[in-house]
Amino acid sequence: MKTHIFVATDGSDTAAKAVDLAADLAARYDLDLTIGHVLHFGRPSEELQRMAHVEHMIEEVRAKAGVDFPNVPDTMLGLFAETRPGEESVRLVTLVGDEILRLAADQAANMGATKVKTMSSQGDTADAILDMAKEAGADMIVIGHRGLGRLKRAWLGSVAQKVLNTADCTVVSVR
Ligand SMILES: Nc1ncnc2c1ncn2[C@@H]1O[C@H](COP(=O)(O)OP(=O)(O)O)[C@@H](O)[C@H]1O
Ligand SMILES: [Mg+2]
């Protein structure tokens, strides 16, 4: 029996399904669950924009962290389109990442998982997921088969593909 599950989320609906499955297993078998997110400074952002609730998230983190972003444009497009990540966008990406993890941890708790931790990292997404899973001591990784990307013709996302091909533990890709 598996003892520690690692689930990766980019905040997408498919990743939320992965969190559901991972949390359900963790709850049923009283397993440790680590939820991981890889932060993308600089390039990510067109994907972040696709999250329907990103604007809401920004408001949330702004209020909660008491952080004021004086130059946040009305739409997030301007900020996220920056080629060089400014200090403000780095902070924002970090806070949005924290919020993605917080929502996923809430979701897991609602599913009845009790031993839940969160982690974030950066760098190549698949490599970072594999490293975090190893660091957490996970022997099973759960991912979504797609994420926030828009390459519809690919049946499997590139992160999912690389994790499935490279991991040396069991990987479950959720549809
Ligand atoms: N930045 C990220 N942090 C954590 N997990 C991620 C990240 N990006 C993708 N994933 C995981 O990989 C899965 C597949 O995403 P991906 O391969 O990027 O597909 P797509 O090309 O559709 O975005 C997601 O459902 C999620 O579980
Ligand atoms: Mg993606």
UniProtKB/TrEMBL annotation:
<dbReference type="Pfam" id="PF00582">
    <property type="entry name" value="Usp"/>
</dbReference>
<comment type="similarity">
    <text>Belongs to the universal stress protein A family.</text>
</comment>
<feature type="domain" description="UspA">
    <location>
        <begin position="3"/>
        <end position="175"/>
    </location>
</feature>
<dbReference type="InterPro" id="IPR006015">
    <property type="entry name" value="Universal_stress_UspA"/>
</dbReference>
<protein>
    <submittedName>
        <fullName>Nucleotide-binding universal stress protein, UspA family</fullName>
    </submittedName>
</protein>
<dbReference type="InterPro" id="IPR014729">
    <property type="entry name" value="Rossmann-like_a/b/a_fold"/>
</dbReference>
<dbReference type="InterPro" id="IPR006016">
    <property type="entry name" value="UspA"/>
</dbReference>
